[in-house]
Inverse folding.
């Protein structure tokens, strides 16, 4: 993520220099396409990270429920714990 952000920062600086010093029309087109592709990469990475964290939460909740189910099937009552909310 740091690399993606660094590339976006460098592209932003180059776009600023292009606007100030007028490097040329070709550079603007290439810079805008690169900026768009890197932004798309960042969005995909953030979405993938969000899905991974959600999956980890669900797996933790499943293991908690399996433990509670095992206690109930053995006839024991679990100690009341404050339940963690899955979606806040």
């Amino acid at each position: 993520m740091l690399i993606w952000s660094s590339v976006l920062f460098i592209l932003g600086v180059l776009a600023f220099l292009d606007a100030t010093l007028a490097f040329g029309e070709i550079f603007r087109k290439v810079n805008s396409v690169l900026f768009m592709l890197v932004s798309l990469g960042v969005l995909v990475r953030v979405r993938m990270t969000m899905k991974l964290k959600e999956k980890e939460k669900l797996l933790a909740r499943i293991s908690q429920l399996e433990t509670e189910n095992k206690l109930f099937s053995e006839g024991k009552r679990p100690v009341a714990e404050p339940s963690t909310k899955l979606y806040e």
In short: The two ends are 25 Å apart (CA to CA). Residues 2-73 form one domain. The chain has one domain: 2-73. Helices lie at 2-21, 25-73.
